[in-house]
Amino acid sequence: MGVEVAVHGLSKSFGRTSIWRDVSLTLPAGEVSVLLGPSGTGKSVFLKCLIGLLKPERGSVVIDDTDLVSCRESTLYRLRRLFGVLFQDGALFGSMSVLDNVCFPLREHTRKSESEVRRIAREKLELVGLGGAEDKLPGEISGGMRKRAGLARALVLEPEIILCDEPDSGLDPVRTAYLSQLLIDLNAQLDATILIVTHNITVARTVPDNLGMLFRRELVMFGPREVLLTSDEPVVAQFLNGRRLGPIGMSEEKDTATMAAEREHARAGHADGGEDVRGVVPQLEPTPGLPPRDAVRRRRERVMRMLPTLPEAARRSVLASVDTQEQR
């Protein structure tokens, strides 16, 4: 099973520019979480701080009772073995075959024999549906295939935590749907802790157990999907509905005059480019034949304990999902 990642009071700046400050959240062990936010809010920076590639000015990232921010370099190197990272573009070596790209971490970080390395790499390629592409170069396969090859490489060291940096970027809706299903299937099989950074509203609404959002250098919200998908928080509702009307502007933050003009425009009955899709839609389930996700059960148990403290809309959504599950 994956491990819990507890982030507390994390702040990061580049020079005088604050990226985000005092970010606190917990990625529950073995569950799928999504981090949303407009472009430029530091989502990728957050992932790099989680694995120690960037050092925050303040705060902690605790895994297995160890703070990755303040630990020794040797300890950090050991804990990084817990992570598998899928970068935005796959980050494959262009001169290596797909198979050799996937073999690379095993050759660098283990003492396994070459035959064992290649066996494990082929197993992971089969897992992501690339069994026939071992000998191709990255330039000879599609963008979606490169993403899946990057995911196979992220899995070869059997990580307990998988970080995906905009896995849907550059993919068409159909390939994005396949990749979303693949991540759900991986969670069902591995019970790994997964964090996905994305702009994709469909992914955010259908894939994760937990949702969070960065905006104006702060974490606006983070919690079970039922809470955020029914939230009245203006920036969350605007983002999930893809609307112009709300706090997010082309330059991230709007002035009050712009917001007032947009509200007047909406009151006059003019469309703002979005639609009201608030509410909790069914979550993706594992492909038939795979085991049910333990993450769903754990999240529901946690949410039921939280039920008295949730907003009314979230409570109704939780109880409706319980009724649906009982009917099944």
Automatic annotation (TrEMBL):
Higher taxonomy: Bacteria, Bacillati, Actinomycetota, Actinomycetes, Pseudonocardiales
Ranges of Basic and acidic residues composition bias in the record: 251-278
InterPro entries: AAA+_ATPase, ABC_transporter-like_ATP-bd, ABC_transporter-like_CS, P-loop_NTPase
Pfam families: ABC_tran
SUPFAM superfamilies, per the entry: P-loop containing nucleoside triphosphate hydrolases
Key words, A-Z: ATP-binding, Nucleotide-binding, Transport
GO molecular function terms listed in the Swiss-Prot or TrEMBL record: ATP binding
Location of region: Disordered: 248-294
Protein name: ABC transporter ATP-binding protein
Organism: Haloechinothrix salitolerans
Transmembrane segments: none
